[in-house]
Amino acid sequence: MPLHLAAGRRLLLLLAAVATSAAAAGAAAEANRSSSCTLLPDAEFVRAAFLNVSNFQPPLPGHRACRPVRRLHFPSRNLTGPVDWAELGNLSSLLTVDLSGNSLQGGIDASFWRAPSLRAVDVSRNNLNGVLRFDDVPSMRLAALNVSGNQFTSVVGLAGLTGLEFLDVSRNRVGAAPEGLQNLTKVRWLDLSCNGMAGRFPDDLPPLDGLVSVNISHNNFSGTVPAAAVRRFGQSAFFQAGNALQVIEDGAPSGGKKRNRAVVIALISAGAAVTAAALAFVAACVARGLARRRKKKKKRKDKDGKAAVWEDEEVVVGAVKVAAAAPVVVIERPLMELTLADLAAATSGFGRESQLAETGGRLGAAYRAVLPGDLHVVVRVVEGPMAGVGEDDDEAATAAGFRELARLRHPNILPLLGYCIAGKQKLLLFEYMEKGDLHRWLHELPVGSMDTEDIGIDTMEALEERKPAGDWPTRYRIILGIARGLAFLHQGWAGSGRPIVHGRLVPTNILLGDDMEPRISDFLHPSDETPEGDVYRFGTLVFELVTGQARWNDASTSWARGVIRNRKGLNLVDDRLLRGDAAGAPEAEKEMAECLQVGFLCTAGAPEKRPTMQQVVGLLKDIRPPAAPAGEPPVAGLMMQ
């Protein structure tokens, strides 16, 4: 079956395709908007659903629309009271719901989940409670769900949510791991933290090999966390996850010998089965957290009332106490005097409120901070080895390694701005990219996404006419920018001739600037991969950008190569492009087909048949003249293998 018709098509592509299909109707839809159109009762359903909710602005009485309600986006509107969720379940075309950051009360009626088109729901940071039920749902295609920061006590019926990819039930009162969670094989992002939840790791979780991010911290799990899981998800994912949970970490090589030792971080026998004291555990967890914040996060305004100041002598970073006086080096601002205390003040003591969602990076937890001089940065805790920096190096050697890494500067590479070495803990500073990563931009992840427009019924027509995410010139620019950045890395350290291999070139590691220029991140790791492996992954990125389809594997790549080999590449092109600005433009369609041919070359089965990234840059520049500044050698004689 063609990839773009496959049953497993991602939620986010479906959302974008539905939203843009109406926009493509353009003037024709406007001409048909008359008394002869089919009137829908959607507005009445919404009005009834929010009848008892304060501060909700309902549609005009008697208003009936020709267009169905597809999105209900009312985040942070001070909405207070209970929602009649059963009424929202009548919206047959409802795709996404964002009611986060309000004061909604009561439970969620199970009939709400029967809305047949529902793809994504974000009701985080409300006062919802009771049992979250999904049982008896006849047809469930939900792919993203965020109910964090509420007071739900249990989750029932998860086994039926087989299409779920994003699940966040953190900061609730769920006393036991939900039954059926282990059956959700498509879940990629999972957060169960801060519940006092009893369960067994990894038996009660989805398969670990399919997860990109997981967090079970501040719970009451038992079982064993292998060292591979700690390396993959970070120590913070298992912090205070249960007294009976054994967390094993690989010891770093010492004395010049390459050996591993298993270190038991936490192993205290539970002795008795977990009982109804789970709720009391949560209350104690919260109380301890508040006490710790009062003690550790002692922030005050300075005499001018301009900046927060950290008063404690120590800071907890990655579950380790370190001296707050450790200096922070901002490489391009050598006169800026900062310490770890300044980073702690700017991140609320490296608290959850400042922590960014994990998107597959190989470093540790990341926190957003605004430093003096309005410098917006991401502070990352280093976990594991880094290229050019030895784990056993002394502070001077480590600092020298960081400065060498900071010399890697290119418009399409995310630069290292600074660092902090506090005992055994290392922190890196990177530029904060407001636009987020390529995956979120291209697939319009609705839960927790940036640049999400607040949509109500009265602005639905504006949504329908919105320009689709990513016209062809923008996508081409991103493809070329990634190629240039990767070619720069493959040139290697200055004068060494040794290439820097990324090893994990995926959309979540491509960040976007305000000008939509891509920047490659997460390349500061030693890798056993080869440059040819990077070229292959770049080829799959080209396929993703041209087709608009996510999660490429060897099977889908092989299938796409067969289509391109048969000169039918246009059959793969994203419908959003063919219906957008490039609709009916032969030159644009030619460029898309030629970019797919570049992806074909890059994904050749034999590594020696793949072009170098420098050659790829030349090929891409020839596709869409005028070319950018010269410098790359001309490419000739490359044929599809």
Can you characterise this structure?
With 641 residues, the chain is of the alpha/beta class. It has three domains: 42-56 and 67-248, Leucine-rich repeat, LRR (right-handed beta-alpha superhelix); 314-432, Phosphorylase Kinase, domain 1, CATH 3.30.200.20; 472-623, Transferase(Phosphotransferase), domain 1, CATH 1.10.510. Helices cover 27% and strands 18% of the residues. The strands form seven sheets. It has a seven-stranded parallel β-sheet with strand order 1-3-5-7-9-10-12, with no helix packed on it. A six-stranded antiparallel β-sheet has the order 21-20-24-25-23-22, with helices on both faces. It has a four-stranded parallel β-sheet with strand order 2-4-6-8, with no helix packed on it. Strand 20 and strand 21 form a beta hairpin. The longest helix is centred in the first third of the chain and has 22 residues, at 11-32. The chain is globular, with a radius of gyration of 26 Å. It starts with 10 loop residues before the first helix and ends in an 18-residue tail after the last helix.
Number of strands: 27
Question: What characteristic shape results from the CA principal axes?
Answer: globular
What is the number of independent domains? 3
Strand order across the biggest sheet? 1-3-5-7-9-10-12
- Rg from C-alpha positions? 26 Å
Content of β-strand: 15-25%
Transmembrane segments: 263-291
InterPro entries: Kinase-like_dom_sf, LRR_dom_sf, PRK1-6/SRF4-like, Prot_kinase_dom, Ser-Thr/Tyr_kinase_cat_dom, TAT_signal
Signal peptide: 1-29
Keywords: Membrane, Signal, Transmembrane, Transmembrane helix
